[in-house]
Amino acid sequence: MDAEVFDEFPSPADELAGRTIAVIGYGNQGHAQAQNLRDSGCEVLVGNRDDEFRAAAQDAGFEVVTIEDAARRAQIMLLLIPDEVQPEVFRDQIAPGLQDGDTIVVASGYNVHFGLLDIADTVDIVMVAPRMIGEGVRDHYERRESVPCLVSVEHDASGRARGTALAVASGIGVLRGAVSSSVREEVALDLFSEQAIWPSIMAIFQAGYDVLANAGFSDDAILDELYLSGEPAEILGRVSRVGMIGQLGLHSKTSQYGQLTNLLRSGAFTDQMRERFAGVLNDQILSGAFSQDWSGSDTEPDADARIAALRKKAEATSLSVAERAVLDRWS
Fold first, then answer.
1. pLDDT of 165-192, one tens digit each?
2. What DSSP line would sit under 116-161, residue for residue?
3. What domains are there in the chain, each with its CATH number?
């Protein structure tokens, strides 16, 4: 299914003239998006609690105010604080200051899609979601290069939500080539990558390590071959430019033959993955089960403790133990 792909907006500063943008949270995405918008000629202030990010914003020359003040003064708010704290911060510090026709801009669809933000019907809701870490968003802007981005209008109370979304994306430097999407699509794809793809990749490395270690090969050689050399990162970099099959031309003919023959023999394994992935998508993500488990009011306060307990279990696996020993020897 094809989606609408956008081109550059004529002038973000003109479209947003007379409106103040508040970047809520000067962290990973906040620092990049605030600087890009300012450099694009937009009026930007930063709303941040009293921490190291507040100091960084002040050092960068921004007017930094409390989140409450930012919500009262701005007409457009980029909500760039972590998903897990957004509902409480929005309820207590942002919602009381919102006016009819204001715009909430999210970079993650999570809280909007799962109904965790109580946003008045008189407020526009749009999504501008760069598919890049903040440093990359800033670096690409300075090189006048765009990055992939998903853009959507979720609620248009003012009649100008689309124009606001496109202008904000343009000001950040991510509109050229951006794709029309929705918070549902963004959150499903994001969570699917995190809960299906990456755990499977880690499980494959774990299984590979166990087989090779049982065959008597050394931990250093195994882990160097699997990923510690950095070769997988190099391969993925090529994949992003020429595709999965296209990058095979950079490998030896022996490598290409071995990869292709075993890829084409993996039908049963691929069928098993499809079944598992469908369960993750439908039973965990789209059903709301994961959101309820992670973001339920009775579980959020101990989020750090829950993650720490899971990390402790993961760090006890054979792969993790071997990895730590190898990295310690290399340090």
1. 999 999 999 999 899 999 999 999 999 9
2. -S---TTSEEEEEEESS-HHHHHHHHHTT----EEEEEEE-SSS-H
3. 12-181 (3.40.50.720), 186-229+265-330 (no CATH)
